[in-house]
Amino acid sequence: MLDIKYIRENPDKVKKGIEAKNEKNRIDEVLQLDEERREIIVQVEKLKAIKNSVSSQIPKMKKAGEDTTAVLAEMKEVSNQINGFDTKLRDIEDKLNDMLMLIPNLPHESVPVGKNAEENVVVREWLPEGFSLESDKKFLDHVELGKKLNILDFERGAKISGSGFPVYMAKGATLERALINFMLDFHLNEHSYTEVLPPFLVNRESMKGTGQLPKMAEDMYYIEKDDLYPIPTAEVPITNLHRKEILNENDLPKSYVGYSACFRREAGSYGKEAKGFLRVHQFNKVEMVKLVKPETSYDELENIVSDAEDILKALKIPYRIVLLCTGDLSFSASKCYDIETWSPAENKWLEASSCSNFEDFQARRASIKFRRESQKKPEFVHTLNGSGLATSRLMVSLLENYQTTKGTIEVPEVLRKYTGFSIID
Description:
Blueprint: H1 4-9, H2 11-20, H3 27-63, H4 69-100, E1 121-126, H5 142-148, E2 152-153, H6 154-160, E3 167-168, H7 170-191, E4 194-195, E5 201-203, H8 204-210, E6 228-230, H9 235-239, E7 245-248, E8 254-263, E9 282-292, H10 297-315, E10 319-323, E11 335-343, E12 348-357, H11 361-366, E13 368-371, E14 379-380, E15 382-390, H12 391-401, E16 409-410, H13 416-419, E17 423-424
Parallel strand pairs: 4-8, 7-13
Antiparallel strand pairs: 1-10, 2-3, 5-6, 8-9, 9-15, 10-11, 11-12, 12-15, 13-14, 16-17
Helix pairs in contact: 3-4
């Protein structure tokens, strides 16, 4: 959520940022409501000042034997006016808050301006030693490999739940579990994160806190009877660990990593490629979340990207880093890098991670603050998150890049102590 004071003082800058994100510009309506709200507050304060002044005189009038009937009637009318204004003020504030919840975060000045993903900027590319994107080798795609080796079953997943719900079988299930455990251990031991195993169902306030609600309600699964949401990412419960808390300066940064299953309806994705893991409704992900002081947040963004890169380097999977333009940024992000891994069968890069800085946008919604030792007034923290990584697209690249001419899969060396085997055949 944006600060209403900032919107009031920088309306043109805010409008420009919203339009750069291809979002609806509601700023004039917001400013009109804000003006009405402030006018009512002024009127209420004047009436309360009159009431307080007159009320202090009534005991003196009574003591002097003066008739207070007219004054009491007048004060009753003033009280009625105050109550009426208070009711109107609550309605305006509720409407203003609802509108503020629909205004996106503003892009950082370092984000390139662009309309869509076509205008994203490739920052760097990493290939394992001796690897080339150009190859005459015939590659089976991950769906063909999964069926041939009996490690993935998309058909039975569709029978059980519907399309987009994969089943991992035999060594495929073991490989998935190994990948998750490896990534968690790596972030714990090499990057000093604190592990969290969060709930997979969260309440409405948690979804509002990280920006999924109300903007993206159609993309979320919802359990109406319990008013709970299956999480789209562990970012939601982990960020909300400190909702409505004031942290000490020395508590920061908070660096968390956690595994979760993720659930997404993807209501707006119809018509997009949906083969195998390319678009699923349930997938696994290891998520990194940071709560930091504002002055360090953009350095921490680079650190999160680097932490995710270390995973791919250890797995020896080719990847590239892409800086998203304004038109491709998410609703809540100020700046975001995508990490894409190479699929030789698809002959294209696949998004396997997004690493974002939300500045104080989520913290303002979730009321997550910290207090500096030198100041009494608390400030909002900056929040960041990054996939470290999502296994579905990563599994596509792993299976396809590690297939042999015999049609088997070599297990990456760093995963073998987790799998107990080196070949899937």
